[in-house]
Every structure is written in structure tokens, then in C-alpha cells.
Amino acid sequence: MIKETFAEKIYSRLNVLLLLLLSLVMVFPLYYVLSVSFTDPREYLKGGIIWYPRGFTLENYRYLFSTPLFIRSIGVSTFLAVAGTVLGLIVTSALAYTLSRKRLLGRKTILMVILITILFHPGIIPNYLLIRDLNLMNSLWALILPALSSGWNVFLMKSFFDSIPASLEEAAVIDGCNDLQVWWRIILPLSLPALATFGLFFAVAHWNVFFNAVLYINDFRKWPLQLVLRQMLIDSNTSAGGGNVLQEGQIINPQSIKMAAVIIATVPIMMVYPFLQKHFTKGVMVGSVKE
Fold this sequence. Notes:
Strand content: under 5%
Mean pLDDT: 83
Order of helices and strands: HHHHHHHHHHHHHEEH
CATH class of the largest domain: Mainly Alpha
CATH architecture of the largest domain: Orthogonal Bundle
Number of domains: 2
Main location: membrane
Transmembrane segments: 12-34, 69-97, 109-129, 182-205, 257-276
Membrane topology: Multi-pass membrane protein
Number of helices: 14
CATH superfamily of the largest domain: MetI-like
Distance between the termini: 30 Å
Structural class: mainly alpha
Keywords: Cell membrane, Membrane, Transmembrane, Transmembrane helix, Transport
Strand order of the largest sheet: 1-2
Protein name: Carbohydrate ABC transporter permease
Helix content: 55-70%
Number of strands: 2
Largest sheet: 2 strands, antiparallel
Low-confidence stretches: 236-249, 287-291
């Protein structure tokens, strides 16, 4: 064991202190939002910093879950996250596996075309015209299909597949598997770290989809959660975020409602990460080291 010098000990402790301070700075806003969401509106209206929930109440959450628009938006965002993640993983992994096979005809040309999509992005207007001409306006598929994959994701997952020994594929072919069966039965089970990592990226992107929803979704009944939350934050007269309302003897404060909505929009993704953590740590290194 290497013995630390006095200067190294001081340096290590200063690093720990700095990281703790940074962690507190990052965590405090979320803690404050959580505290306000559980605070009685009467207590919140008294002013001051809410260090802990004053007059603990669940009325803010009850009010949100009694709002049809908010409930519908949770369902929309859930559909986008689940469908978008599953389809995105299927398309990205299938394309990446195909391009990782050197026997594919035109492989280099396809890789070059995908590389061009990374270097040169068409922009907002061409994408909007494409969605309009495909009759996908006001359709949730307008938020899923364009995001099924990206050149960057394909290249990263291809690098992971390149590290899988070709002998496994050859053995599966000898046993009678075709290309589809090799991909489904051999490659995907060996790629759980990569799939978990990209699945988390896809899920977060679809759950937090906002800008594309603003462009393509005009029907408020199809708004995802982030769009409803944005409407609540800018319009105090919406049904989910109106002014102070007396409902069955309980004061509903717009700020408390907004804080509760932020927590509801944030917690689902935070709950997913622990289940993927064991794969995520390895998966973030996808493509960085090739044996």
C-alpha cells in the first residue's frame, strides 16, 4: 500500500469537500421542489425558504391526479417512452449488427452515408416538411419514427458488436441458425450492457420530448407530459395550474401544484436507473475500448 504524503492527504480531502459542496448545490433544487410539493399551500403563502415540508399534505398531488389533461399526458409520455425505447433498440441494434458484418455488400458506402448524417444535419424546416408530407402531423408517431436511431448511436453500438468474436456467429450458423436468429439468440443476449445504456438514453429522450411535440402536436389531448408542464408554468389560468382555488376547504396554490408536477415528471426516470445500474456502468464504455 502506497503511503500518502501530507500534501496528497490535503489534496484528497479538499477534493472530497469540493465534491460534497457541488453535490449539495445540485441536489438542493430538487429537494426544495420536493419540499414545496408536500407543503400546505397556506404555509407556502407565508413566504420564506421551505427547508422542509410545512404542514405536510398530499393535496397538490391529489389535485394533479384529478386533472384529466395531466393524467392523459402521463399516459402519452409513458407510451412514447416504452414504444420509442423498444423500437429504437430494435432498429439501432439490427442496423449496427448488420454493419458490423464485414461480408455485407456495400458496407463501406452505407457507413459513409450514415457518417454524413452525423456531420450534416438537415435542420428544422426539412424535418417539418417531411413529417407534414408523411401525414404524421398530430400523430404520436411523429415523435417516435424520426428518433428511432441516429448515426452516432449506430456507430457506438457497431463498435460494441465488433468486439464480439466472429467464432460465435460461425458456431451458430453451423448449428443451423440464420442471420436473424444469430442476432436475436446470440448477439442480443451478449449485448445487455449496451442495450441497457442505449435503452436508458432512448427512454429519457422520449420521456422528456418537448421541442418536437411543440412542432408536430397541436391537439392538446396528445400532449406529452413536458408540454403540459410547460403550459402550466406559463399559463396560470390552465385547468391544472390556475390561481388560488378553494376546493373542499383546501387552498390550491399554483406554485405548489407546479412543484408537484415537476416531481411527477422527474421521478419515473430516476426510478429506472437503479435497475439498469449494473449494466450501465459497463455500457457507458461502449466503443471506447476494443480488444
